[in-house]
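tool_log.txt
---
The assistant was asked to compare two proteins side by side. It first ran the structure predictor on the initial sequence, then on the second. Raw inputs and outputs are pasted verbatim so the downstream comparison step can read them without reformatting.
(1)
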Amino acid sequence: MATGGFTRLPSGDVVVALRLSPPSGGGDIRVIVLSANRQRAFTRLRNLGFRGVRLSGNAEPPTADEVRAVLHHPDGLVWRDADATDAVGWQAFTALR
């Protein structure tokens, strides 16, 4: 089970933030997904190889900077290392593969 959280935007969309281990191995990453609802966000991640992604609770909701980053990205899906500082930019999901 992943740690993270979500927030609902005034438009009705949902931003989900999760701390995951990438399918290829390595350190944890923080993934931010913009979607119509939480289930669609999890479906997008499952389709990209993150099997069994679930969220229990809202312990680590996305920050304002994370919401802004995902809103300005055309895919609505960004990531970076979980331990990265704010100086490190968000990357497109295609850079992870």
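(2)
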Amino acid sequence: MRNNFNTSAFSELKFEIGEDPAEGWFSYTGKARYSPRRGLVAWIGPAMIGTLKSARNFSYQIEDPLDEPAGAAERDSGQELSPLDLTLAGLGSCSLKTLIGGGSARGVIFETVEMLIALVASPSQGSGGDQSRYRIDCQFEVEADATDELMTELIQQVQEFSPNHRTFTDRMPIKIGYEGSPGQIEIVGDGADNALAPIPADVERRIAWITGPQFESWLPAQTPTARMQIDSPKQLTGADWGPNAQELLLMGLAADVASHLNYFSVRELGARLPWEVTVTAGIDAGGMLDSGDSDVGLQEIQCTVRYLGEDKAEDGSSLQRVVDKAARGSVVRTLVAGPQIVNVSLTSARSGAEVRSIGRRAS
């Protein structure tokens, strides 16, 4: 079991999927709630790993970058995460896990594996729907007993078979429903109206492999006092040490939509209102393990918004307008719906060689 990564378990899973495709469907849940008293909180719900239920229970107090009373003290201390922190950690840790798994299957022994991941915002002044473009830079930093050619091949496999990477580089439909409204907002592609809400400054995260499917993430400019822990469910050879990559991504999406719900509640209705957002999605492991023709990225992404106010002072059309603007203004929703440009670079500690390639962008 190289790198403490149980590749044989995934071989068994591939066989089980061949016998019963239902064993290859993994579904995850991320939730977030904005409260005028408690601010923004995100957590995950139970997961279904094939036909097995996995009790998952991790929660975080989230820094709300759009909530004006929230100062920068928490951000400076590194104690609180933003929605984009969760999102980038989800993308980066999924890519690193795919690299460790693919390398372990090829006999590579890893000494250290880290990634510096950055979201770069480049706002444009166009009048169309696509008013903001983003670039994601993923710099792999690897020390391993592998040639540059093999490492390059493994990184290319990450671009093909990492579910979260493919979620960003492919075009992903997201259905957003509001309880209290008969219809759903279905947004496909990157046609966001991000001029409605502030465009964030560039965000960076550092992610490091610990052992097996365990990782840690922190802000690169700080000496972290508390690192975010990332792990797989026990049913997928993890130790339930923390959320996995998909759960982080779904929490990031839920928290960002909840943040924008508060932002537009204040601007449209003049008050901070309580909201809850639930995001669900699944992965077909058959595609991830290349045992079928299924898609690799997240599928059936469903976002459900619920107004938690007890009073009925706000009419339905006003609340629906807030939901619509929050859905279209969400930066994470824009990133996930894609397709996005993802620049990938590899720095080998063994030779100092660097390989650059650009992630696929769907037409």
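---
observation on (2): Residues 70-78, 124-132, 188-195 have pLDDT under 50 and may be disordered. The longest helix spans residues 245-269.
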